[in-house]
Amino acid sequence: MHDWSLPTAYRYAGIVSGLRKEANRRDLALVVSDRPAACAGIFTQNRVAAAPVQVCKSRLPRPDARGVVICSGNANACTGEQGIADAKRMAQLAAIGIGCQAEQMLVASTGVIGRPLPMQVFESGIPAATRKLDASIDGINDAAHAILTTDTVIKVATRAVKHSGGEIRILGFAKGAAMIGPNMATMLAFVLTDAAVAPPHLQSMLTRAGQRSFNCISVEGHTSTNDTVLLFANGKGPQLSGTALEEYGNVVESVCVDLARAIARDAEGAKHLVTIEVEGTRNDAEATKIAKTIADSALVKTAIYGGDPNWGRFVSAAGYSGVMFEEKDLSLWLGDMPLYRDGVPLPFEAAAASAYLRNNREVTMRLRFSLGSGQCKFWTCDLTPEYVHLNADYTT
Amino acid sequence: MHDWSLPTAYRYAGIVSGLRKEANRRDLALVVSDRPAACAGIFTQNRVAAAPVQVCKSRLPRPDARGVVICSGNANACTGEQGIADAKRMAQLAAIGIGCQAEQMLVASTGVIGRPLPMQVFESGIPAATRKLDASIDGINDAAHAILTTDTVIKVATRAVKHSGGEIRILGFAKGAAMIGPNMATMLAFVLTDAAVAPPHLQSMLTRAGQRSFNCISVEGHTSTNDTVLLFANGKGPQLSGTALEEYGNVVESVCVDLARAIARDAEGAKHLVTIEVEGTRNDAEATKIAKTIADSALVKTAIYGGDPNWGRFVSAAGYSGVMFEEKDLSLWLGDMPLYRDGVPLPFEAAAASAYLRNNREVTMRLRFSLGSGQCKFWTCDLTPEYVHLNADYTT
Fold first, then answer.
1. Which sign does the torsion angle of CA A236, A189, A173, A181 carry?
2. Which residues contact B89 (CB under 8 A, 6 or more apart)?
3. Distance (Å, rounded) from C-alpha B177 to C-alpha B265?
4. Which of chain A's termini has less CB crowding within 10 Å, N or C?
5. Helix (H) and strand (E) counts in chain A
6. ipTM for the complex shown
């Protein structure tokens, strides 16, 4: 456990509701703010958006949110009108338990698509979770575990920021593992702070932070139906504004980057965290497009897995990204090793490049273009036989 | 071997030039038309186009082509100015051998990116290939083998068409295996016919056929630097026009579809050929966009591999394709089994659906939208541990 600075007036629970088949597997999380909190959200851009996503979208942003209830093991996606009713009922049960209006409670789900929720599990489980709410690290630990699917570790990030009104604390936790494609927030993440921030500022801050964190990771590029990031701010002091708001936004972004990197690092079957740095494009969007195309290529991912410095795969992926460039505009490094300069292949030590890939858990490739000042930092993982095995037999 | 109807006045060779390390592995193919042939080409849309692609593009379409020389094992891509000179020299050596102008000869390559061609191999190898030219099935067999990389079988398709001027024959052969993404022609294919067709007609015919065949397959969606499809027509009779030209175009298309399907079927490590039928979109382009997004999803591909009817992955892939639709617009079948109708999940026999995937080498999924009359038929393969192993150690 980290030495966590916990934001004030939040409580957490993570329990075994019985939604999952595995005995003693936590599958229901609840996060509650003891006072009304400003809340903003960013969501999947998939046209097939899960029921809880639709419910959250209709309720956010708002100044008086009280928390979120989350289940893992069932996505409540592709479930029609019944799914919407079920998501609303989950929120209502949590709201009854803590004593607030149903609309003040948000809801999220992750798991298998296309199965109705077994609601009887929640009729008893959600009240039980409200009775277990706990403000300590134990509560966070339980909640962070309860949202996982095939993740192997919990993902938590914290920051404390000095401020004229006293210290502000930020806590984020997330789940990832697979169905991670960078189109909005690609998983579940919850960021809690005791700062006071007006909902419109909170929303624009989260949108910007998401663009540079959760939108810059990819496991296999498959955008989930359930992606949800919620940012709560329940501070009592004067609302942040001006430079203080801007600086605070940067800290929120760094929390989001930590969580996003943790998701790429703990992707299903992954053996490498790969950072792709693209610079010198006409604008940031071009850099992101190139980085995402490289990140999503199975040929790039298998080369990294195999410790094979087959850099033609990196360059050719950039070539089909849709961004216009000429070969002479492009140079490439793997770690510190230059492999390709201004469109000309460089002699390089294949054994050293291979050793770099084989001996490091975290590796970096850098593509430099001569077109402008656009840039992007993007995170992905390798593609391993374990990923295939894990996903060849997930529902059945 | 099929009972092939061979187009007249073509000869073929496939030899061991020494480009590949493996002893006795054919790596150099030559196809020659004994009389000047109209020739059209379609090529990769990758911004990083290999040297032979650039040379072909500058020479096509033309009325007097005499053939194409092809090497496998080295892509001659990302090789700068030297690569262009080397590709031209390959064509020149073949032209000298058969006695024509260098510009009448085309050139193609496939293999590892970023390595200079060992030209001394071709200085002797290409003259040797010209001496081995053979009009029989043996010659075709040699040539079809010499262009393969990790393919496990040769891909050949033939047709014979009755025509007022006598029978027209069409022969196509191709290679695929990996780095197959549907943006133009995604591999090497050569289609030879003894029809008489003017170059502009030949070009538009090939463009249209490619759009419905090679552009409708995907292995991992990584568009190669070297994709090349060439269509030769060396007929002496009157040039095809009107209805006869149109009918002939349909036959050319069916040859291209045969080759494209054969590539998806023999993709690296593939255990399934998956046909994705999309219908009822606003236009064909939308149907193709949806089909390609599904085809490129690692989660869809691993589900097929595992015999797991996890249809939420199919629907959610459609959802992030970029095509606008509502869930109620969509219905889904796996084989004959309806799984999802008008946005509502249907009860289905998971065991029967799983058996369908496990027991069939070729499987079909169908997505029906209620938006219009657009449609597409698309072919892909599953993602297997073998694919990962094959690509984790390809260059080194």
1. negative
2. B119, B122
3. 9
4. N
5. 11, 15
6. 0.79
What gap in Å lies between CA B291 and CA A360, rounded to an integer?
A: 37
Nearest to A63 by CA among A250, A235, A241: A235
Query: Which of these, B382, B380, B377, lies nearest to B367 by C-alpha position?
Result: B377
Q: What is the DSSP letter of B216?
A: G
Among partner residues A297, A305, A323, which is closest to B388 by beta-carbon distance? Answer: A305
Tokens representing A357 are 């890939």
Distance of alpha carbon B260 from alpha carbon B185, whole angstroms: 9
* Owner of token pair 């053939």: B67
Whole-angstrom distance, CA of residue B292 vs CA of residue B217: 8
Q: Inspect the interface and report whether the beta carbons of B388 and A391 lie closer than 8 Å.
A: no
For B222, which of A114, A220, A297 is closest by C-beta distance? A297
- Kindly report the backbone phi and psi dihedral angles of residue B31, in degrees, each rounded to the nearest multiple of 5, phi listed first: -125, 130
- CA A19 vs CA A139, A306, B124, B345: distances in Å: 20, 38, 70, 20
Rounded Cα gap, residues A224 and A77, in angstroms: 10
Q: How far is CA B43 from the centre of its chain?
A: 11
- Crossing angle of helices A298-305/A312-319, nearest 10°? 160
Report d(CA A226, CA A176) in Å as an integer: 11
CA distance A80 to A114: 9
Tens-level pLDDT at each residue, chain A (396 residues): 445 578 899 999 999 999 988 888 999 999 999 999 999 888 887 788 889 999 999 999 989 999 999 999 898 988 889 999 999 999 999 999 999 999 999 999 988 888 899 999 999 999 999 999 999 999 999 999 999 887 888 888 888 888 777 788 888 888 887 666 544 334 777 888 888 888 888 888 888 888 877 777 777 777 777 777 788 888 866 788 888 888 888 888 888 888 888 888 888 888 999 999 999 999 999 999 999 999 989 889 999 999 999 898 899 889 888 899 988 999 999 999 999 999 888 888 889 999 999 999 999 999 999 999 999 999 999 999 988 888 887 655
List the one residue out of A260, A392, A361 whose CA is nearest residue B388: A392
Q: Which residues of B touch A326 (CB under 8 A)?
A: 47
Rounded to two decimals, the pTM is 0.81
Strands (E), B113-240: 155-161, 168-175, 188-193, 217-218, 228-233
Sign, Cα dihedral of A43, A47, A51, A55: positive
Q: Which chain B residue lies closest to A223 (C-alpha atoms)? A: B320
Structure tokens at A363: 């590796």
Q: Residue A320: which of B46, B75, B300 has the nearest Cβ?
A: B46
H-type helices in B306-368, by residue range? 312-319, 350-359
Region of residue A280 (phi > 0: left; psi between -120 and 50: alpha; otherwise: beta): left
Query: What are the structure tokens assigned to B262, written together?
Result: 């054969």
Note whether B187 and B260 are within 8 A (CB): no
Whether residues B298 and A221 touch (CB distance < 8 A) is answered with yes
